[in-house]
Amino acid sequence: MGKSKNTAGIARLQRWCNDLERAMPIVAYYMKLYTVEKILSERGEQEVRSVAAQLLDQVELFKREAVGEAAVLALIEDQQKAKTVVLNFALKMHNGILEKLSLLGHTEDVRTGLWCSMDLLQCILHLWSHDEDVLSEQERAECQRRVKHVKYTLARGKPEAPLAPLAPEVADDQGPPVFVDEEQPMSSSPSSSPAAAAAAPNMQAVLDQEQKISQVQKLAKYAISALNYDDIPTAKAELQAALALLNTL
């Protein structure tokens, strides 16, 4: 007897958790949280719920091991920083898959990569879309746009080009676009890990950049405040400091 759609979908997410553990552990941490929440919300079979228990144990172990590692701990405690790292990783992976799609066509490896990138983008939407202070409207729209593009490509068996349209444009004689079933099981044939293929970003570099951008924003606010009091010299000094910091990015 084959797996149910729910079980097949969770098995796919579990595979990404394992792949990401090797490629980017902090991204795997959030994929595990997403998988657990998805299992609990869907009231899956006992076999699937046991997967949730195993993943929760791994999550707790990761948190304990992160104590003493400032960069990793920051990505657990600060959701803004966590979103930045996970989103950067997801977009870089998806862009890489799109390049392979244009060069190689709809191969099994490319199809696997599309599934992985879609699940990771949906993980981001699930975990952070409820808070605009963490995931901006623009970031949410971009994730949703890419998810739609992947679903269309998987359903049609060929790439939809270009990615730019928010929704695929289909000629009248083709009928409406058919989107892929999110719980559809993948082929069991071996393929390379799309998560491992994506180069892991330097976490400290990402955090440093975010801190610099935050400082630039503060300096710009100080300049505006100075202008409100006609304090031109201070406004110039703050803007020059902001520009100098921007030039290091």
From TrEMBL:
It is a peripheral membrane protein. Its main location: cytoplasm. Keywords: Cytoplasm, Endosome, Membrane, Protein transport, Transport. GO terms for biological process: late endosome to vacuole transport via multivesicular body sorting pathway; protein transport. Residues 163-202 are annotated as: Disordered. Gene3D superfamilies: Immunoglobulin FC, subunit C, Vacuolar protein sorting-associated protein vta1. It holds the Pfam family Vta1. Residues 10-156 form the Vta1/callose synthase N-terminal domain. The keyword Cell membrane does not apply. Residues 187-201 have a biased composition (Low complexity). One of its GO terms (molecular function) is ATPase activator activity. Coiled coil: none annotated. Belongs to the VTA1 family. PANTHER family: VACUOLAR PROTEIN SORTING-ASSOCIATED PROTEIN VTA1 HOMOLOG. This is Vta1 C-terminal domain-containing protein. It comes from Eremothecium cymbalariae (strain CBS 270.75 / DBVPG 7215 / KCTC 17166 / NRRL Y-17582). The lineage of its organism: Eukaryota, Fungi, Dikarya, Ascomycota, Saccharomycotina.
